[in-house]
Specification:
heterodimer, A: 6-stranded mixed β-sheet, globular, B: mainly beta, about 0% helix
């Protein structure tokens, strides 16, 4: 089993739709997680941090399910500008080496 | 403005040549990282460094070398032993347990 696994997609959704991605992780000792957004030919940028209580920022909600070892990202009212690749990130227990998922591609269409 | 600066933005390598990619940060982060990304693929860790004068191999270190003589700097050398160097190279830095911040990358191609 990979340390961090994501559905590669692509997810094709219309504007205004709600879409959710899951990411499973194997290191049960991990305490915090992150979602990054990567636009085509650009560097990844931090979207949200995910702690035990989850996190919400406008149209974006991130949740952590420790029992099943997955984190989720929910995007409500999708915009064309949300089209990107979303990377799930899991720091290891030592805190320095970080495992990136391969990413989930999202296309939002008019 | 604090951040990570990678240079050059584009780099071309000739057969048998070593090239060095620069990465400088002024965020006062202890840890620095180098990743390689191939088209349509995820990030793969080449090397990382937790403190000055110390670094560890990542998942694909063969054909690459690094140094960490200063906290702010973590240059990556792509040696002639790396037979398929064409890729997008990303440098990042972080504090332990916190999110990594990325530079805007260097695109390396073979002439």
């Amino acid at each position: 089993r990979k340390e961090v696994e994501q559905d590669p997609g692509p997810f094709n959704v219309p504007e205004g739709a709600t879409v959710a991605f899951n990411c499973t992780y194997s290191n049960s000792a991990s305490q915090s997680f992150f979602w990054y957004r990567q636009d085509c030919r650009k560097e990844p940028k931090l979207l949200m941090s995910v702690y035990s209580s989850g996190n919400e920022d406008g149209r974006f909600t991130a949740q952590l399910n420790r029992a099943s070892q997955y984190i989720s990202l929910l995007i409500r009212d999708s915009k064309l500008s949300d089209s990107a690749t979303y990377l799930c990130v899991c720091p290891n227990t030592g805190g320095f080496k970080t495992i990136f998922g391969a990413g989930t591609r999202l296309f939002v269409k008019a | 403005d604090g951040g990570i600066t990678q240079s050059p933005k584009y780099l071309f390598r000739k057969e048998g040549q070593n090239v060095t990619l620069s990465c400088e940060q002024n965020l006062n982060h202890d840890a620095m990282y180098w990743y390689r990304q191939d088209p349509g693929q995820g990030l793969r860790l080449i090397y990382y460094s937790q403190i000055v004068n110390d670094f560890q191999k990542g998942d694909i270190a063969e054909g690459y070398s690094v140094s960490r003589e200063k906290k702010e700097s973590f240059p990556l050398t792509v040696t002639s032993a790396q037979k398929n160097p064409t890729a997008f190279y990303l440098c990042a830095s972080s504090i332990s347990g916190q999110p990594q911040h990325f530079g805007d990358g260097t695109r390396l191609s073979i002439l």
